[in-house]
Design a protein that fits this description.
about 300 residues, alpha/beta, Rossmann fold, five-stranded parallel β-sheet, globular, binds phosphoric acid mono(formamide)ester, binds norvaline
Length: about 300
Amino acid sequence: MPRRFLEIHDMTRQEAHGVVNRAIEMKQSRFRSELLAGRTLALIFEKASTRTRVSFEMAVRHLGGSTIYMTQNDSQLGRSEPVEDTIRVLSRYVDGVVMRTFEHSKLTRMWAKTSIPIVNALSDDFHPCQVMGDVMTMVERGADLAKTKVAWVGDGNNMAHSWINAATYFPFELVLACPEGYTPNKDILDAGIKAGGKIRLVTDPLEAIRGAHFVNTDVWASMGQESEAGERMGVFQNYQVDAKAMALAAPGAKFMHCLPAHQGEEVTTEVFESEASIVWDQAENRLHIQKAILEWVYSGGEGTLPYTLAEI
Ligand code: CP
Ligand code: NVA
């Protein structure tokens, strides 16, 4: 059975922990393998990307495989060929798809029509590879996740949703501060809380940041929301992460951002460029976590994973 990674919950809790540990190991050993030798993955990007595209291209190369990069503009996807048809054709050529798209349902619709693995490289609803990499970044810094508070400040967007999903698998406390009307999807939030995640939604950013060990934010207008940027600038103005807010966080707290950042909007340059900022480690870890995710995808079953699924 091929594996998919459209959301963090496509792994079991134990597998997610194993993948984070494995990524740290792979980073330390500068891991290379021939796991994907003779295999080619199509990278389909309907939105811009720097980190995700290049780190996936490199991850596949480090595992001995090759990639074909496609966008909607240079394929028939941009001329209304349905994703169901596209994936049925690609399935005859390539060994997997990594896709960045708008509607998350495009990924599930494709999955329903294929027998090759699909990995979500960001959709409007989720960014699972990024958040797995962010969990790795906290763990490699020695964070005891059971005693860790993570703040999410700003938009209840795709990143916030994946953080909620992660909070059901990893034992950190997650406090999200979002303005009314920009809160995370209620079903995703409720499911996260029901699944036992230590998750709270508040409106006051300082309540989320107070005592937090990791303070996360993201752009106020995500890709596809450009026309709302002006309005959002007003809505989010009290949600900027600045030095005064960071001073309320736990001693030694770190600032996190998936990037790209808009300095002077969601974060001040002072915080972004400070010692507390670990954004470049987060960016680097995309490479390592995606190697571990691809290994999980292509290892074909728990029994065949080349590592122990140690709990974090
Ligand atoms: N964080 C992230 O996904 O960056 P890109 O949009 O550059 O891929
Ligand atoms: N929320 C952002 C994340 C970018 C990596 C977006 O979707 O544009």
